[in-house]
Amino acid sequence: MKKLSAIILFCLATLSAWAQVTFNASVQGGSTVEAGTRFMVEYKLNSTCDEFDCDVTSSGLRKLSGPYSSSYMSTSIINGSSTVSRTTTYTFVLMAEKEGTYKLPAARAVSGGKVYMSNELTVNAIPADPSRAQSSQNNARKSRSVSPSTSIGKDDILLAVDLSKTKVYEGEALIATLKLYSRHQSVSTVTDIKFPDLEGFTVQEIDIPQNAETSLEKIDNYTYSAYPIRQWLLFPQHSGNIVVKPASLTAVVRVHSGPRSFWDDPFSLYQNVQVPVKSAERVVKVNALPGNKPASYLNGVGEFTIKSELTSSKLKANDATIYRITLNGTGNLKYVREPKPDFPADFEVFDPKSDLQSSVTAFGMKGKKVIEYTVIPRFGGKFTIPPVEFSYFSTNLHKYVTIKTEAQTIEVESDGSETSSGAGSVDFSGTTQERIKVLGSDIRYLHPLDADELTNDKDPIFGSFGYWLWFILPSAAFIALIIFNRHRLKLRSDAVLQRTRKANKVANRRLKSAAAALSQHQESQFYESLHKAMAGYVADKLNIPLSELTGDSIREELAKRNVPEDVINDFADVLSTCEFARYAPSADAQAMDMLYQKASVTIGRLEKTL
Length: 610
What we know:
single chain; alpha+beta; Immunoglobulin-like; seven-stranded mixed sheet; 9 helices; elongated
């Protein structure tokens, strides 16, 4: 049994040694204290401590007592796994004899042969509240038989909307905090809260931890304990003076209601008193942004940086790559519009996807906004995406600043789908000449003829029409071939024309993908391929970017080209059915087959008309 206990203790000690050791310092009740009032500073080490050293008096604070040490150990067993935690705490009781800012040095602790240093602390001492000290002395003199008054002065409980800034630019962030202030009483809860009217601002609520500590603040030479109730991040929507209307609530205050003991023991009687309070109006002066806004201004106010990148800069035609723009900075990051790059005409571009990763600071949102464009080059070649300009209003420089990304180059390898062997392609191949086999004998007898038997049955070839034709025809064919090849190269260099000519071929390839998905009962893939075939055909045929296609624009462009009304209606019906089915798919195989046939016939009729 003893042996088993020793093994268990050894395992617990080993697990404890594996835990990460931390050494932290904190001021109880917050880092703001009253001059002449005691406060405590704690140093916590989550391990055993072999040696501790901290010279708190070097900060200028008066040490009243300490350090007092305490330690505890806890063991938890979860799913058969044991965890041992040990904590050693050293506490000082200090006092600032006068107002000012004091810096406590880092403490030093030794545990397991290793030295650990705590964080430094900054203590702000504010002037003491004379009325608070007088009230404390009066309470100490009261006997057990004296009953204090339960009345609360009008300045004992206050409600205010604290603003981080009162002068900002349009779109510049500021933080509003609703705080309850109490001088002597302990506030147990609040009810009937009416939050301030924040009309004129774009509002984002900031979460306040439930265990948020109160702080001491000086108001009109009185010291109050401040309780944060609600906090908001505000962005002014227009210039001028914006008024923050008053907030109100009822504070439930705990006060003595009966005879109070000399030592203020817990058996003294208390009573909850409801105190209605109301905040004052606050005014925020919002300056208008200068009128000389650059063309690339996208509503950004703050400080930003921008960069661009490609997930792949070398790919084959009809393969996808992602063009990513990353916007970093602090300000109204959430409300900045998305930059629009100028992509080459041969690129199929999908709607951008935006991702915001941010945290709230006193200056606004801090983080990054990532905008991703999925692009598909349709033809081979070397393409350049020009730099993207982004302009914002700098709250530090008080002027517009323009920044831009780097230019991105894409090398696209042809996949062979945009070239074909036809009349313009020439194929030279060798031929094999067989030997002439002589039958019989290779020696022939000469048969003598008379002069009368020798006659000229044909005209001589030299100088005849056929003679010159053999010279003219090859020369004319060679010149025609040169002219045709130049014309073919000129057509291929026209990317818009190539896209228009191959629209039907690309649409048929996508229809085949839809047919394959239909045969495999892949509903989502079927509707997506069919939608790409229809929309892509019109975009390629009419040379319209896919991102600019809408139902109305398609009808208008087809009507301009004298497409029959029934064909336009069929096309719009197929397109809308695909878009609806992508979000609410139907399992009706017959309906899907009919939709496929209708799409195929509609594209064929459009091809004949256009």
